[in-house]
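# step 3/5: fold
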Amino acid sequence: MVRVKRGVAANKRRKKVIKEAKGYKWSRKSKYVAAKQALLKAWTYAYRDRKVKKRAKRQLWQIQINAICRQNGTTYSKFIAGLRKNAIEVDRKILSQLAKENSDLFIKILEKAKS
């Protein structure tokens, strides 16, 4: 049986982890064990916060829509209910953009939802 030395693969793996941790503070950028722990934590936060980011955006859109709805004498919930009742399928992102950039069109949609 031939002796297999495994240093090359191990060093490659460690180098890859250290390279991923570039820019981290203290020993987390240079020591393998610390870098590995930091990366595991970072990837966990990244996975979680991709969902939090979507949640925060949706909240922002709702706030913006509610603000313009209240200026025109209705509430967000009544506006959304009116859209559903009249089968107007426009998502909140687009409604928010219309409220900011093209308020005339948004007000027309609002009137349609009120009726």
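# step 4/5: annotate
DSSP finds five helices and no strands in the chain.
# step 5/5: archive (pending)
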